[in-house]
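Researcher: Going back to the complex we discussed earlier. I've cleaned up the inputs and rechecked each line, so this should be the final set. Can you rerun the prediction on the complete assembly and write out the structure?
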Amino acid sequence: GEDVEQSLFLSVREGDSSVINCTYTDSSSTYLYWYKQEPGAGLQLLTYIFSNMDMKQDQRLTVLLNKKDKHLSLRIADTQTGDSAIYFCAETDTGGFKTIFGAGTRLFVKA
Amino acid sequence: NAGVMQNPRHLVRRRGQEARLRCSPMKGHSHVYWYRQLPEEGLKFMVYLQKENIIDESGMPKERFSAEFPKEGPSILRIQQVVRGDSAAYFCASSPNGQGAPYEQYFGPGTRLTVT
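Model: Rerun complete. Updated structure for the full complex:
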């Protein structure tokens, strides 16, 4: 079945760039997403990318997609302490409604 | 425009009791999704509903769990005879449409169920 994998932890210094990586198995994925979850809260959609795109940039966020390797990354420029959260990579299946989530990467930002 | 609302935010039940979790989608959204998040894990899809219809329940346990989204009122996720393993955060999401592109799911704050 479909699977999405992420590294569990990432620690960076304030002001540095953060890169969170994700791999997925479903070659027919249509959309790939990055969500942010702060403690005790629900998930907030940060950005998404269509499977026919290689890159998408939105302010401090850059998403790179390597479809051949089924690898997705999220780069956060000038990381701030407020960026500390869990970041989930997700993809939709061929039907377009069932979202498969990774286990999340916990980002720690040190001041 | 209020976001997705879930209540209660925290629910404590003893083993064997029933748990009812409610989700009110965003205004104008007719598609609801329920996910379960176990501690230290990602979200797992449970069920997808439209008004009065269950579209996909492939992620929901066959026994003790049921979901509905009536014509009027919130979507309900019901867990009968709860066990300790049901302790988790249950998230609801809504979207204006289901299939088709692009779409986004807007998540509620979740209900944290603790079974003692």
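Model: Worth noting: The longest strand of chain A covers residues 43-50.
Researcher: Good, that matches what I expected from the previous run.
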